[in-house]
């Protein structure tokens, strides 16, 4: 009896706190970012549309869940990173970080618009070559290069292979020698405030300087580049300036002490997506336990690709101009900022579940996409739109769970939405960075990917079938697949 | 200058703290669990061996990384969960949680030893049927059942379909009616202290009771089971007893108030792996920042499958015996406790990287397996063994990173190991639960899986090839794959 009273009291207190938390949310906190930011329009019963195509309708054709790539947004971002600097007309050379969203259809689209390939594994190098990217448009990075892939890279005369750490330099030198040609290489350094750990050689303490000395001493290596990747996201002019300043100062040191005139300054990636921000620990807690809505980021607080690229060029030009030295080529390797906001994941409600006791939790809606496909949405703000019910007033707060049997599989602990029914669809925005590469086939096959271009949807990748999931398994032994199994995959491919 | 002094001081202080942390580690903290616990033996230069097979040698045949399944351990665990209770000879009926390690070769091996299938998605239901599991050996659970899969389940007369939440009951009733047969169903309830959220109907507050009433009122449903899954891991007799007691008390309530004689009590899974424990927040911090070694769990602190199964049976028998009622069938749905410790992930060192400045970080070793394949090792203690260098004294503390370009890709922040060279191999133990289903193809293809049985290794799943990674992509357009690409996949399959 005492237990029941305690339980009841706890639930009432929690409910009261939740009401308070909702009421005390910052003004405008429940205001969503407008769909027009992603070129989405609202067309009555057809719900949200991209280029006139109903997202809900796309699910009926291609199955749910579904990744939808917006070709126009991709073209826009590709051009923005290559914005010429007023005056000199100089542009950044852009190498897309393959790991961020390695969909061949997306990669080819970028390559056709002047973007090269930044690869970090033997597979990604293979993929770039398979997609027809010329060796002189490929940069090879990362701490995990195989010797075989280095032979391939040096043998083909890749544009640039950056040593991730000092220990790679003698390996590079030996393999280049074996290939009988001088390899074009750089060294990745760590500027103060950037990622370290397994990545790069720190400028502080002189390690990076000694690594350059060692590389310059190897006859088989042509040291053409200084490579730095901040890792920690860049949002503001101040963050960009500090990072670029540190790289330029180290380039000056290499010039002054070693006489090194670098052909390339490679500034890596790290530019943030304006509409995506990490969810802070306190905000997450308020969202999870008190169902307080998340605050969308202010998109203007983050540098756009245009401003980032032109600011970077301006800093480099001014630096070398003031010293009367030739301006090096400026490389950038954007990932999330190039593709993040060009793709959305559209999912369906499988079922709803009422909250315990009305007060001990929000109602749940279980979606057909969860942490298996949208891990990013658990840690970062990603705008969510109801698709077919867009425009209906929010009726209640839902906890949106995914389909895999883990309590961790909650994408949105508290989202104010119209009343949902099974079959309704929702769109998770900015799914073009680290959604596809972090996807798993946990209990559910992976979805199809389509590209919308000029009002037409084209299949880039078909959905995994049940058979695909076991295609590599050799363990069926003597029992053949039974012809009586009638379960079909619920997509257009079935 | 001041910055340099500050940096130097910080590094010295950190180094001193690390020395202190290592020295003040609990006695025996660096002692590893013995390889014999996993039937591994040490054979000189051949390193660690399973059934006489050198693990390092297996990599040479099948490529690295490699999952190695121990058939004898699997057989042992399957038998242990089915240990007969002294006296009555009653056994638990075991339904393996497919989601935990859905490798067809492993599943078939278990099915051949009397274990049924517990599935939580349309794909897993399809897989069980494809593996030839008879419908009367399949339990279908989870919050994400499609209507099509329910038609399949009811049409075939599945042993048991558990409603995850109340809203599923009318859907079950309608589909069973359409199938023209009574469906054997249960209702998943939440006992105090168990998972809630999207899972189950709470006993507290009367929701579970009302759900049973609703199910009993549906002519097309035959209510045969009460289903409960603790979720939070069970390690001790006390935890088991409390959980079972709550389920039995609710079964009594159903009997007393509704006259319901249940055919089945389904106690779900949740038994822990004796050699795996979550890493606490403080321990993780000490490990990450001060390189203090993790403390291995004491395996005896966790119930073995034999003790768990017999204790459970004893509680149920005693409960019903005391009331003079017929003892129901006892179902368990083990996942991690059945396969977790029957599989290891063997990986190679790709490269090493010296720590910054000697004091600002441990040396790094970059492995060919990281968070893409062994996410579990980032949150739980998993015993790590050097394989080819087993027996050499620990020479230094390494930070073991994976191959994907993320600072999060660190599996072991601080592991005391012999001096490592590229090509050396390491084994991550207890990889048979939630490693394979949470695996991604992030920048690197997924590895092969072999089973070792009676001194022979058999391929269960071949490694993904580069071509496999793009097999579903339709976006090559007019440019065919170029015949000049020579990069091969570095496995035996190439």
Helix percent of chain A reads: 25-40%
Question: If you average the pLDDT of chain A, what whole number results?
Answer: 91
Q: How many strands in all of chain A?
A: 21
Total number of helices of chain A: 13
Largest sheet of chain A: 9 strands, mixed
Task: Please mark out the parts of chain A with pLDDT under 50 across 5 or more consecutive residues, or reply none.
Answer: 25-29, 477-494
Question: How far apart are the termini of chain A?
Answer: 55 Å
**Gyration radius of chain A, in Å:** 25 Å
Question: What number of domains of chain A?
Answer: 2
CATH level 4 superfamily of the largest domain in chain A: Alanine racemase
| Largest contact between chains | A-B, 101 and 101 residues
Strand content of chain A: 15-25%
Q: What would you call the quaternary organization?
A: homodimer
Would you state the CATH class of the largest domain in chain A?
Answer: Alpha Beta
**CATH structural fold name of the largest domain in chain A:** TIM Barrel
Shape of chain A: globular
The chain-level structural class of chain A is: alpha/beta
Architecture per CATH nomenclature, i.e. the level-2 architecture of the largest domain in chain A: Alpha-Beta Barrel
């Amino acid at each position: 009896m005492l237990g029941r009273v305690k339980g009841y009291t706890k639930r009432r207190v929690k409910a009261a706190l939740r009401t308070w938390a909702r009421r005390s949310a910052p003004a405008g906190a429940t205001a969503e970012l407008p769909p027009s930011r992603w070129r989405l329009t609202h067309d009555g019963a057809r719900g949200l549309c991209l280029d006139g195509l109903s997202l809900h309708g796309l699910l009926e054709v291609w199955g749910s869940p579904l990744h939808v790539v917006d070709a126009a947004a991709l073209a826009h971002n590709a051009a923005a990173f290559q914005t010429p600097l007023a005056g000199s007309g100089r542009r950044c050379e852009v190498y897309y970080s393959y790991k961020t969203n390695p969909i061949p259809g997306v990669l080819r689209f970028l390559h056709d618009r002047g973007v090269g390939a930044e690869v970090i594994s033997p597979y990604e190098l293979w993929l770039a070559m398979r997609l027809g990217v010329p060796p002189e448009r490929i940069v090879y990075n990362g701490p995990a290069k195989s010797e075989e892939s280095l032979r391939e890279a040096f043998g083909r005369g890749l544009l640039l292979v950056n040593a991730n750490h000092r220990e790679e330099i003698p390996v590079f030198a030996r393999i280049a020698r074996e290939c009988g040609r001088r390899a074009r290489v750089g060294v990745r350094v760590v500027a103060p405030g950037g990622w370290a750990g397994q990545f790069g050689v720190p400028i502080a303490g002189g390690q990076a300087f000694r690594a350059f000395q060692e590389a310059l001493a190897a006859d088989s290596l042509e040291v053409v580049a200084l490579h730095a990747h901040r890792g920690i996201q860049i949002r503001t002019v101040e963050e960009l300036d500090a990072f670029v300043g540190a790289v330029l100062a180290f380039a000056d040191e290499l010039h002054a002490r070693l006489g090194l005139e670098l052909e390339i300054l490679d500034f890596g990636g790290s530019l943030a997506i304006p509409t995506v921000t990490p969810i802070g620990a306190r905000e997450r807690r308020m969202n999870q336990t008190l169902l307080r809505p998340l605050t969308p980021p202010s998109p203007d607080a983050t540098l756009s690709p245009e401003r980032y690229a032109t600011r970077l060029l301006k800093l480099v030009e001014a630096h070398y101009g003031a010293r009367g030295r030739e301006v090096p080529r400026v490389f950038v390797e954007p990932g999330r900022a190039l593709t993040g906001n060009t793709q959305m994941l559209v999912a369906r409600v499988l079922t709803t579940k009422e909250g315990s006791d009305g007060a001990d939790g929000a109602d749940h809606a279980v979606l057909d996409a969860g942490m298996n496909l949208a891990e990013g949405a658990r840690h970062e703000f990603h705008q969510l739109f109801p698709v077919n019910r867009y425009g209906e007033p929010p009726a209640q707060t839902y906890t949106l769970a995914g389909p895999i049997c883990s309590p961790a599989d909650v994408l949105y602990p508290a989202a104010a939405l119209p009343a949902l029914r099974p079959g309704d669809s929702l769109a998770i925005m900015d799914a073009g960075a680290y959604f596809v590469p972090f996807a798993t086939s946990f209990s559910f096959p992976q979805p199809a990917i389509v590209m919308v271009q000029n009002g037409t949807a084209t299949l880039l990748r078909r959905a995994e079938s049940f058979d695909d999931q076991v295609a590599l398994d050799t363990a069926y032994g003597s029992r053949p697949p039974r012809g009586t199994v009638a379960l079909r995959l619920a997509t257009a491919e079935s």
